[in-house]
Inverse folding.
């Protein structure tokens, strides 16, 4: 038997303990392994390789600009 905990997003996001037989746990876990030929997106948005140059230019501009005046 395998006991694991996960968030139940259907019911208020509370943590739930599940107990499964080993073979059932392996079967449910294997469903999440993509086929060999399937492309998986690992990076999206600012982490994408094609965005590195654009994000670097933006961050350089932000860091070079003078800080905003402090207001109380």
């Amino acid at each position: 038997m395998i006991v694991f905990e996960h968030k139940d997003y259907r019911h208020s996001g509370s943590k739930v303990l599940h107990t499964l037989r080993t073979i059932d746990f392996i079967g449910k876990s294997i469903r999440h392994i993509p086929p060999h030929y399937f492309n998986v997106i690992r990076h999206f948005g600012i982490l994408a390789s094609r965005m590195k140059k654009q994000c670097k230019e933006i961050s350089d501009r932000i860091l070079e600009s003078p800080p905003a005046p402090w207001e109380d």
Summary: The first strand starts at residue 2 and ends at 8. The two ends are 60 Å apart (CA to CA).
